[in-house]
Amino acid sequence: MFRAVTLNKKDDGIISAVETLDDAALPQGDVLVAVEFSNMNYKDGLVLNGLGNLVKSYPHVPGIDLAGTVLESRSPEYRAGDKVVLTGWRVGELYWGGFAQKARVSASQLLPLPSNLSTKQAMIVGTAGLTAMLSVMELETQGLKPDQGAVLVTGATGGVGSVATAILAKLGYTVATSSGKDDMRQYLTDLGSSQIIAREELAAAGRPMESEKWAGCVDAVGGTTLARVLSQMKYGGSVAAVGLVGGAKLETTVVPFLLRGVKLIGIDSVLCPNAKRREAWRRIETDLPFDKLDSAVTTCGLSDVQEYGKKILEGRVRGRTLVDTNA
Question: For the whole model, what pTM was predicted?
Answer without folding.
Answer: 0.93
